[in-house]
Amino acid sequence: METDTSRTDTDLPFFHPKPTPARPLQGLTILAVEDSRFASEALRLLCLRSGARIRRADCLASAHRHLRTYRPSVAVVDLGLPDGSGLSLIREMNRAAHRVPVVLATSGAEREAAARTALEAGADGFLPKPVDTLAAFQSEILRHLPEDMRPQGPRPLDATVLEPDRLALREDLAHAIALLDRDAPPMGYLRRFLLGLARSAHDTLLAETATALPGTLKQGERARLKAQLASRMAGMAAV
Question: What's the pLDDT at 125?
């Protein structure tokens, strides 16, 4: 899926909005390579409050299509994608003749190891999930931007925690259940997806379940996991 926010003044020719202390990322286009709808919604809210424009790719193939048509100011790349590792995309962008100015990796699984491997692959920085505070999001991007792309003057640190739409979380849970319905569920990918989702949603019990997932599931284990995910969906619907 490829998503572009509604058209804004940045689409007008010769119009280049400048960053301000209140909207320090104004004028930037951020490509979010993220398969989780819940994490993507968090990034959308962070970009909106920061003045940036966001485009989304939910897999490597979609990200490549984006990068063939434009160069974003910032790329935020999840390391666990359905069609491969985000590390490969980071390496490609790092070797490109016209490199994306800021390349950040993000992950909710094995965060210390993920940060280390991402930096080795050429990422400028790392955003551990959950990415939900404006201050942390803006600071990590701004510290890697060229000087002429940063806002001038002092900037207030906004510690606001943004809450993504819970419907996006339901979509992610439904996606996980659909993966479990496959004849051979992709357990490596599913484990990383659920762990990232659990940390983004601050769901300690789901994080423990995801961390303990084995490489293969017996029918009974698969049924119990599906029931656990379905229970969360039902509980959200009742709120």
Answer: 96
Task: Give per-residue pLDDT as tens, 110-132.
Answer: 788 999 999 999 999 999 998 87
Overall residue count recorded for the chain in this entry: 239
Report the relative pairing of strands 2-4 and 125-128 from DSSP bridges: unpaired
pTM as predicted: 0.88
Domain ranges of the chain: 2-149, 166-238
User: Residue 9 has what pLDDT?
Assistant: 43
Round the CA-based radius of gyration of the chain to a whole number and report it: 18
Residues 6+ apart with CB under 8 A from 113: none
Each residue of 9-66: pLDDT tens digit?
Answer: 444 444 568 888 889 999 999 999 999 999 999 999 999 999 999 999 999 999 999 9
Residue 107 bridge partners (DSSP): 128
What is the three-class DSSP state of 92? helix
Fold of 2-149: Rossmann fold (3.40.50)
CB-CB neighbours of 213 under 10 Å: 17
